[in-house]
């Protein structure tokens, strides 16, 4: 399970667990601004009694705004007309290659990733054709390993409804692209998450819990 600590990956994890899979989790420390998502991955894995391995890598040759040292993360804009500045070229390809190595080494038969091609930021490595190509590549290796993308064609509101039914602890997840102590509420990821919860008819528990914690800290 590629467990980033975000809403989609947490939902994907609970989906795999509900299907009865024996899950091992991978997270990646690649110099992302929002590396607090790694601690969210750890908490979610620990809550389910699962092992989490954190793979450290880097993408020093690109200028993605998602990576520390890159340009500032832009506020969300209406619609998707081009690949956003937060896209990290080759990131999911590197992640899936590491997951393949892990799966082959441990005898795992499935690689789960919470990719979504409906409500997303416009990344080319979130498209159905990309994952179909990956599974053709795996077949060419003669392996039984397959990549599963159960959320790929769902709207964010549908993912949230699915997760609420399964008891996903969304208060432990992190989606904001900016490396702040609280979600900025303005980046693409925050906007998509907020709209998803609104359309699903639920309040985002992560926002409420962090606001309460900030008030507690202010009183100390």
What is the gist of this entry?
This protein has helices spanning about 5-20, 35-45, 90-105, 130-140, 155-165, 190-200, 205-220, and strands at about 25-30, 50-55, 110, 145-150. It is mainly alpha-helical and about 220 residues long.
- How do the helices and strands follow one another from N- to C-terminus? HEHEHEHEHHH
Q: Would you tell me the structural class of the helices and strands? A: mainly alpha
DSSP strand (E) fraction? 5-15%
DSSP helical segment count:
7
Global geometry: globular
- Outline the low-pLDDT stretches: 211-220
Radius of gyration: 17 Å
What is the first-to-last residue Cα distance? 38 Å
* Main β-sheet, spatial strand arrangement: 1-2
Measured as a percent range, the helix fraction is 40-55%
How many strands, what sense, and barrel or not for the largest sheet?
A: 2 strands, parallel
Number of beta-strand segments: 4
Mean pLDDT: 91
Give the tags.
single chain; about 220 residues; mainly alpha; two-stranded parallel sheet; 4 strands; about 40% helix; disordered C terminus
